[in-house]
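Next comes a concrete protein, fold included:
___
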Amino acid sequence: MTRNMIIGVTNFLVYVTLQVLVFQNLVVFDVGFVFVYIIFLLLLPMELSFSGIMLLGFATGTIVDVFYNTLGIHASACVLLAFVRPYWTRLVTPRSGYEVGVLPTLNSFGLGWFITYALPLIFIHHSTVFIIEAGGINFLSMSLLKGLASSILSLVFIVAIQYLFFKNQR
């Protein structure tokens, strides 16, 4: 087992556990929800295959759905995030490119790059969750407001987690 695989499995267990035990009940004004478990999908190695990312997205979302009792909402949002991620990473490639084995963390590429990389993916995930939860586009404006507020709130927690627990790799 490689070092990144051990880190990935540990991250998966920690983030999903934190999500279902702590962050599930953290709601701000019934608009801002925190979904930190998606940091697992965001921090997967860049060289991971497309099908591997999709399977991990489905598995992650399904496990969260079991604890949230949401019947596939998080699974579909995670699969969409996993589908968009490889295309988005090509668009935000830094000038030096991506090195093999380096995780796309805040410490590896900097705060500006990480926000540019993570915020649109987080917004796609969160908006998908709230649009599906609303049952369609009938409440699109409220769903997008929840998606935006939750994305910003989740990004703050994801950045804080990385500053607190990830060692500096630069």
Summary: DSSP finds seven helices and two strands in the chain. The longest helix spans residues 140-165.
